[in-house]
Amino acid sequence: MSALLPLFLLAGAALAQAELRSLDESELQDVTGQDGISLSANLTFAPNPALTRCAGGCGARVAIKPGHSDGFIVVDNILGTFSFEGLKLDIVTIDSGFAGEGAQFNGQALRLELTEARFENARFTLGSSNQARGDQAGFRQTDLLTYSTHGEVRLHGNLYFFAAP
After folding, report:
1. Is residue 142 included in any domain, yes or no?
2. Which of 117, 147, 153 is nearest to 41 (CA)?
3. Residue 96 lies in domain
4. pTM for the complete prediction?
């Protein structure tokens, strides 16, 4: 009997059918209510004196050049452990809520949903710079604020990004 079970399962699988067909544009436009993108990660940033411009080592650096500006927004000296579970990115329409301002806005926004995010022994500096990298000639950076925590910080909730008019 036990020798026949795999044969029956194989025969049953062969009889199972599923339809995979391409969808035309009108059918795709009717697909809504998806969850967007869901991500989880655990990132640890530690200084490496061999790869940085700082004596003793700096943390990681992210430089963003917005639009056609001449400068960069930088998140510099990133150290510590950053982890998040169930981070979701989604485009949502805001047409209600927010103490009545949602109806006035009545537009789309990018929602970053944090199911749970943690920072442990974290540090970073937010600033502006004239160049993306700190090892180039003529490099200048203005630090706006530095965040540092010893221990653990937990976050959850939604963060919305709106397009500038």
Report:
1. yes
2. 117
3. 38-161
4. 0.56
